[in-house]
Amino acid sequence: MPVSLMKIIVSVFFILFSTPWLLAQNGSGFSSNNEKKVGMMQQALNGEFLLPFRMINLDADDIDFAEFYGKTVVINVWSTWSKPAVNLIHSFDSISKTLANDSLVFIKISVDHNLDDWFTYSDTLPLSNNHYWVGDSYRNSIMWFTLESVELSQTENIIVSNLPKFVIIRPDGSIKNNNASAPNLPDFVVEVLE
């Protein structure tokens, strides 16, 4: 089956299975209920266990994150719409080439809304190694790491998604560092290796 046809099938699959959930969230893609978002943020704290999730690779294969259990995993959560995230991809890849080994894996996970945007953009960069897409659904536990509380006033705040985000997962699936330094900073390598 040609890769382009597979890409279309995967896109349709995600649309069909995510639409009922999105409609249940008042059509907004996610409930405006801050309590629910705060609860999700609590699940992304150091020491918690990363909940299972599935990803799509550049060959349009469905991958279970559990395949990485038994290794330390450094995750770069990014999106094509986030210029700071795009700018750090090369730094992340450069360090991963130096440090990656049998027990330490570096992966990039795109949270682009549109699968085609990710596929198209991936053709312009050397991203083939350990690069995945999960979409931007908040049901997916990897998105919880991107949530941040922004104070609008002394009495009101909102929860937003902020990228890029770097996360380190222990071999047992627990969160070692839910807010690792960016790969262009000296602390990044120290945090990965400690």
In which range does the helix fraction lie?
25-40%
The number of helices is 6
CATH class equals Alpha Beta
Order of helices and strands: HHEEEHHEHEEEEEH
CA-to-CA gap between the ends?
Answer: 44 Å
- Overall average residue pLDDT: 80
* CATH architecture term: 3-Layer(aba) Sandwich
Which regions contain 5 or more consecutive residues with pLDDT less than 50? 10-31
User: How many strand elements?
Assistant: 9
Q: Into how many domains do the coordinates divide?
A: 1
Q: CATH homologous superfamily name?
A: Glutaredoxin
In the sheet with the most strands, the strands line up as 2-1-5-4-3-8-9
CATH fold-level label: Glutaredoxin
How big a fraction of the residues is strand? 15-25%
- Shape, please? globular
Pfam family, one: Thioredoxin_8
Domain Thioredoxin-like fold: 70-175
Protein name: Thioredoxin-like fold domain-containing protein
InterPro entries: Thioredoxin-like_fold, Thioredoxin-like_sf
